[in-house]
Fold this protein.
Amino acid sequence: MTLTTVLAMGAVLPALSEGVAQAASAPAGSGRGAEALDTLVISSAEYPDDGNWHQGVGDYGSFTFASSAADVVSYRYRFKGDGGWSTVDAGAPGGSATVTFLPTSEGVWSVEVRAVDADGNQRGVPTTHYFLVSDGRAPVGGWTLGDAQGSGSAAGSGTSPAAVPGTGVTFGARPGPLGGTDTYATLDGTADAYLDAGRRIVDTDAGFSVGAWVNLPEEPTRDQTVVSQDGTDRPGFELGYDAAARGWTFRIPSGDQGSTGEWKATGGKVVPGVWTRLTGTYDGVTGEMRLYVNGTAVPATAKRPDPWNATGNLQIGRRISPEGYTAHLKGGIADVQVHDRVVTGAENAESGGLQPRQLAYWDVDSAPGGVAPEMYGGTGLTLGGGASIYTPEPGSCSPEADPECNELPAPDPMWGDGHLVLNGTDAYATRAAGLLDKRDGFTLTARARLASRSPAGDQTVMSLSGARNSAVAVGYSAAAGRWTLTVTDADSATATRTTVKANGFLPSTGTTGDHLALVYSAAFGDVVLYVNGVESARLPWDNTWDLSTTALQVGRTLNGDTSSDLLAGTVDELRVFRGALDEGLVNLVRGLADGTSIESTLP
């Protein structure tokens, strides 16, 4: 937020509260004659209504409601952005009530309250309490693990202790999750693959969160621990990989000694060789446990009814068990953080994954020598068959300047100064394999417009082709009259192909066509089609393809050497991204001006 915004809030919020207080003492206009309405006071030690910034995201505050009416038995209340009304009973007729609330994001928050008597009547006027919530508090423990090669320990951030490594740890590997100059620690998976922080970092019977970047060389066949904290013979928590569930996990044993039960949230897939951000959160008030993978919460959650506190050392790369330390990590790890609060969903969405990176962009405004240049000097898009680039020809006269000019203006391109034209018989464009990572997620986007409102046959806008068929494709179904999403389970002649139609939009024949975005999340194993920024189709995809061997095809599906479902229409603004763009970023890309990139719009 800007300084001007903060100063304005400081002036406006007290005035709003003052106005509410004056209204509460004004003469009544209904039911009680001209006597003064009952007053309703809202107070909070953590988040007072004083125009100042307080506490922070992920920290609970208590809010007490008190009415001057002697017959009040309950209070109805709602926090901004937290859904509908809730009710809390007064301790006794005319008594007060207290609720707790956890702000999930920075900014201006409010709670509106109404006092209610035994007959369900509102007493007095509603009162609103405004409060300003600052950023969440910093971690109580942190290790970047970017220490120089040969270091004898991993330096802690802030007041965190140095973590002592076993001989199975090597510092100085690169590139880390932040890019080519970023370094990280590698653990070899042996009994010496660990870092010991030397003391307890967080109370595990109260709210806490733990996160780290991790990169595994292959899908494990056994449990592997990223971060844990010792109890007596069980860890107070474990963030890592669950071999039985074949997914990432955040789990807490139901007891310290002799316990075999556990509570856990598990989900998301290991993508070998790819950096993944894991965050586990435990809400000490609700008892809820959540796991975030690359900033997205896995569907499964857990309730922890009986908390206990593990007072042993924090461990990186292993967990304690009755038999000793086990589940040693084999892979890379970076930026371990431990908070003594909840790291909220909004915080995870903002910082949980790698920044999107545009791998290629073709504005197809020109094609010298039959190749549309990649905007930033990469491999161009080769035009084949009868493919061509349309750019409007200047007229011989201008109707605006010459009233006698009868010449119709040339149609505008779809976007920018030109677009790709495909004839539906032999035209296509292609970019050779080598653009995508072997298993990582990706996003393909383009604008497309059909030449006819009702084409006779199926057509393809874009696909990724292998040796025998296409891995994924976005196209048009003549039978359904809709855009479609198709996935293929393997690059083989006997592969299974699955197609689903997009909901919500009939294909547009307007000037700018439809914006189509195909998004593959490797961590969650699904493919999503966004049409004009709205999720319109989704398919699970247990991908076995080596995506680095697939070529981008525009306007066709390629099965071996055979082209099919060729597009009769126009295509523009083709982009390829590393990673799965979320809905907000898809819409950002949808509105990008010709010749600009997503990186220029991000902080």
User: Anything to note?
Assistant: DSSP finds three helices and 42 strands in the chain.
